[in-house]
Amino acid sequence: MSEIINVARGLEKADLVIKNANIVNVLSEEIHKGDIAVSNGIIAGIGEGYSGEKEIDVNGAYVTPSFIDGHVHLESTMMLPSEFTKVVLPAGTTTVIIDPHEISNVLGLHGISFMHEAVKNLPIDVYTMLPSCVPATPFETSGFDLNSYDLSLLIDKPWVLGIAEMMNFPGVLNLDNNVMGKLELAKSMGKRIDGHAPYLHGKDLCAYIASGVKSDHECTTPEEAIEKLRLGMYVMIREGTAAKDLDALIPVLKKCNTRKCIFVTDDRHPADLKEHINGMVRRTVEAGVDPIKAVQVASLNTAEYFGLKDLGAVAPGYKADMLILPDLKTFKPDVVIKNGNIVAQGGKLTVKLPDTEALSMRGSVNVKWITMEDFTIKAEGSKVRALEVIPHQLITKSIVSDVKIQDGNAVSNVENDTLKICVIERHRATGNIGKGFVKGFNLKCGAIASTVAHDSHNMIVVGTNDYDMYTAAVALIKSQGGKVVVKDGEIISELPLPIAGLMSDKEFDYVVNKCDELNQAAHSIGCTLEDPFMTMGFLSLPVIPELKVTDKGVFDTNKLDFIDIFQTADTEVQPVC
């Protein structure tokens, strides 16, 4: 402490001094000139006349706090954390708050431990929010069931900031004992509880917030965000690969007090990582939001919400996590500084990541023996209740559509884009297979399949015929997870994901190229969705309206019950030709 005090007073040389900076001050909401002195990874002082062992004259360039991603599932990148770091660190993200919800659904506490071990010694701060809903609902089969006792084993760890997105808001409102135990656990430790409550409003929203939930990343309209802000919530503005809410919520950032707004990515595929939180800041400024406020949303707000008192600002006593920017337009850092050390420059890492031994991970695709007959659906009529996907949204519509009948079975109707969808339980070899129909993929032949299927990550398959769907499922069993495209019984593209069926052990470029190849292959068999695998991966998530498919069947989130897809009589549903 004496050293940093002496450096701050100018009595001793700093380790690093950034000279002639235009400091973007998110505390006073102004830009002012000054030098920045750093000692032992901490900002000691700001002013004039500081000298250091190393000095960088930035000649009027802008210095901001580095950026924080307030909610991300690293597993969704399909890469190990080290590969994720290689990409986002040069973009200016030096801290992330992860929710290992995906791997926990597959491997339970071992999944959380795996992720914690995998982020050790990386030049990026990684904090964890413990998954609150494993499984997300009782309407699907996950690999594990984590209760409040399980979470209590980790809640007091310094790298754990609280309980992650409480998706089971009906459980909160109905005083479910398991849910109540998790809320009380976090509150007893003085830790945060993140929310997940699409469309919740009015008195039910008040009750949800009063329970201790203080954030939400499911706002899709300004009205929804403003109501939650008014009631004291932090609004996490999400821009993922499938769910893109930034443009819709820009009016909130222009109209409202932004101090309770946070930028998050939630779920992103690797190709969308090179521009990370900095891309959200850039687009926000382009839309007319004050640059200081945009930087504040990307740094200080997030740090304050999570109680990270030494992050999020360029000021004495804060960690020397900073970006040197040539302007406040592109938000591409010339230099990224972490703990007072330059870790990236010119868009490239300048530090070597630690060599890590391959972490042990058991096989996680455990499927009861399947045959092609397992994919059949006995016809009880030619009309079915089907899911209709909405591009760039997680929600689906419930519609009525026509299927074809062959040998007494309901099969895909390629002409009107009503395709079969199956979810195969892959954790406990129960033999469960949920079957239904989906519109929006426009496949003309073949099938696509994946073991990335939120939230329980069972195997999900969409196809035009049972043979290709069966072939795709068998391929994923053999590879112990991944993504695959099949045409005429042949695999035309495949990405193995042997780590929990969610992540690759290969490098970033390999995963990106394979993802591009998969999408191109899907498009070659007719798919019109920009990213069909991301869209497909959310069709099994029974906490997002309106219809979803789990390993237990087709689920109506409005009724909170499974439906018979052939019972289509419903005045609220209009037939679609």
What features would you describe in this structure?
With 577 residues, this protein is of the alpha/beta class. The chain has two domains: 64-349, Alpha-Beta Barrel (TIM Barrel); 372-562, no CATH class. The protein contains 16 helices and 30 strands. The strands form six sheets. Strands 1, 2, 3, 4, 5, 14, 15, 16 and 17 form a nine-stranded mixed beta sheet that branches. A hairpin with an 8-residue loop joins strand 22 (418-424) and strand 23 (433-439). Helix 3 (101-107) crosses helix 4 (109-118) and helix 11 (277-286) runs antiparallel to helix 12. The termini are far apart.
Provide key terms for this protein.
30 strands, alpha/beta, single chain, 2 domains, TIM Barrel, 577 residues, nine-stranded mixed sheet
Coarse shape: elongated
Task: Give the number of domains.
Answer: 2
Q: Largest sheet, described in full?
A: 9 strands, mixed
What are the segments in which pLDDT stays under 50 over at least 5 consecutive residues? 571-577
Q: What is the level-2 CATH architecture name of the largest domain?
A: Alpha-Beta Barrel
Percent range for β-strand residues: 25-35%
Tell me the number of strands: 30
Strand-pairing-aware structural class: alpha/beta
End-to-end Cα distance, whole Å, is 73 Å
What is the H level of CATH, i.e. the homologous superfamily of the largest domain? Metal-dependent hydrolases
Mean pLDDT: 95
* CATH topology (fold) name of the largest domain: TIM Barrel
- Tally the helices: 16
Measured as a percent range, the helix fraction is 10-25%
CATH C-level class of the largest domain: Alpha Beta
Radius of gyration: 25 Å
